[in-house]
């Protein structure tokens, strides 16, 4: 792997993972019974060969159109089962989307999500007051018809009817929706970026990672990332920035210690991310506290820019996990999709222009279903880990999201 070398710890510890499988099933069953049931979520996973980690967890996932036909079938069954279980009376589901009128990929995401939910006679509509000027949106497969949505004194009206369940596919960066009346909303609005923080997720997920690692008999660092958070516009104040740089160097010291402990060579990096951000905006890679101090105003401005022009105030500084996965001359990152707290489908984000440590959430990346990799000997390890290490850290992240839901709904 470019710039890094280390033992194949995931392969070495595979027998431990398999031996721990019954205990892990019991562990997940106990934890899920004590937590709310998430309708959906997506998890970005990085596999370095020596460690595997969920590096991002999305409560309002897009990208359903990137899932292959087999994954769509399985995920549809999981989504419908969730609705049957949580809202059995719901016959009309309304999807409240983002306002991406010029993003055909996002339009296809909505089309696929709608189809997956349109089972057992349920009707699914899509729209919001912000899209009132559009009767349809243009996607790669043609037009996607929108429904007229209005908010009245009695709540939400969709084509003069009241839906039974509102499904948010909007991350609420600008704030919560109002005027919905007593309509059930999922995921809860508290999971929106107006309130949620990336650091909240990683803090909530860590106890589950620790317990799973103990069950398997491995170092918890092998199942997660090291991180710290900077709050209150620290990057705009020199004295605070100096203190933060010292904390960053402490983090690098911790990571280098783990590298030495596990026989890994290479220079670690950290990613500085908008703690309440999304879509990969505002991400910078650094290799030391000094690099943080030397960031130009231009790069700092890029860092503080968020979705919708929202300025970032808090930042997550997270250990970078290089990807050892390669296929067809591209680096690879698994993207896992869950429903009801379980991984039901996934695809692979690939990029032939990026390095092993790069953020792959970029326009140059491509998407491949597992079916695309099947039959290729070079992809055997990637596919084998989907139900193993990759699925494990993704489902631990889903537990973390469920724990977040409890905290943010209080």
Tell me what you see in this structure:
The protein is of the alpha+beta class and 410 residues long. The chain has 12 helices and 18 strands. It has helices at 9-12, 14-19, 21-33, 69-86, 104-117, 198-216, 238-262, 289-293, 297-304, 370-373, 380-384, 386-408; strands at 41-47, 52-58, 92-97, 123-126, 136-139, 142-145, 149-152, 155-158, 165-169, 185-186, 227-230, 270-274, 283-286, 315-319, 326-327, 330-339, 342-351, 366-368. Strands 1, 2, 15, 16, 17 and 18 form a 6-stranded antiparallel beta sheet that branches. A 4-stranded parallel beta sheet has the order 4-3-9-10, covered by helices on one side. Helix 4 (69-86) crosses helix 5 (104-117) and helix 6 packs across helix 12. The chain is globular and about 65 Å long.
CA gyration radius, whole angstroms: 21 Å
- Judged by helices, strands and strand pairing, the structural class is alpha+beta
How many individual β-strands? 18
Uncertain runs: none
Binned strand content: 15-25%
Gap between N and C termini, in Å?
Answer: 45 Å
Largest sheet: 6 strands, antiparallel
């Amino acid at each position: 792997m470019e710039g890094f070398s280390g033992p194949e710890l995931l392969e070495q510890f595979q027998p431990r993972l398999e031996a721990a499988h019954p205990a892990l099933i019991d562990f997940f069953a106990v934890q899920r019974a004590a937590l709310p049931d998430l309708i959906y979520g997506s998890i970005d996973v990085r596999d370095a060969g020596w460690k595997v980690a969920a590096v991002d967890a999305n409560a309002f996932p897009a990208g359903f159109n990137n899932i292959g036909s087999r994954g769509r079938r399985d995920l549809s069954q999981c989504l419908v089962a969730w609705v049957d279980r949580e809202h059995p009376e719901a016959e009309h589901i309304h999807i409240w989307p983002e306002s991406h009128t010029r993003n055909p990929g996002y339009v296809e995401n909505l089309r696929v999500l709608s189809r997956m939910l349109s089972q057992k006679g349920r009707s699914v509509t899509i729209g919001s007051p912000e899209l009132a000027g559009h009767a349809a949106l243009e996607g790669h497969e043609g037009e996607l018809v929108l429904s007229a949505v209005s908010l009245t004194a009695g709540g939400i009206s969709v084509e003069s009817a009241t839906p039974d369940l509102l499904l948010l596919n909007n991350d609420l960066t600008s704030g919560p929706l109002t005027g919905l009346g007593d309509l059930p909303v999922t995921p809860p609005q508290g999971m929106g970026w107006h309130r949620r923080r990336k650091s909240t997720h990683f803090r909530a997920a860590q106890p589950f990672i620790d317990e799973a690692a103990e069950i398997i008999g491995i170092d918890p660092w092998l199942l997660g990332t090291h991180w710290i958070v900077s709050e209150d516009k620290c990057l705009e104040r020199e004295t605070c920035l100096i203190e933060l740089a010292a904390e960053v160097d402490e983090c690098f010291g911790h990571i280098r210690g783990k590298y030495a402990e596990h026989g890994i060579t290479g220079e670690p990096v950290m990613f500085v991310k908008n703690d309440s951000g999304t879509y990969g905006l505002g991400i910078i890679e650094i290799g030391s506290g000094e690099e943080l101090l030397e960031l130009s105003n231009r790069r700092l401005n890029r860092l503080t820019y968020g979705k919708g022009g929202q300025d970032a105030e808090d930042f997550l500084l997270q250990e970078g996990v290089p990807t050892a996965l390669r296929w067809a001359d591209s680096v690879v990152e698994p993207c896992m999709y869950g429903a009801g707290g379980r991984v039901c489908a996934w695809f692979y984000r690939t990029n032939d222009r990026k390095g092993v440590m790069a953020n792959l959430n970029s326009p140059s990346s491509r998407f491949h279903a597992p079916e695309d990799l099947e039959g290729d000997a070079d992809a055997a390890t990637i596919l084998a880990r989907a139900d193993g290490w990759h699925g494990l850290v993704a489902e631990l992240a889903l537990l973390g999201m469920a724990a977040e839901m409890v905290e943010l709904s209080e």
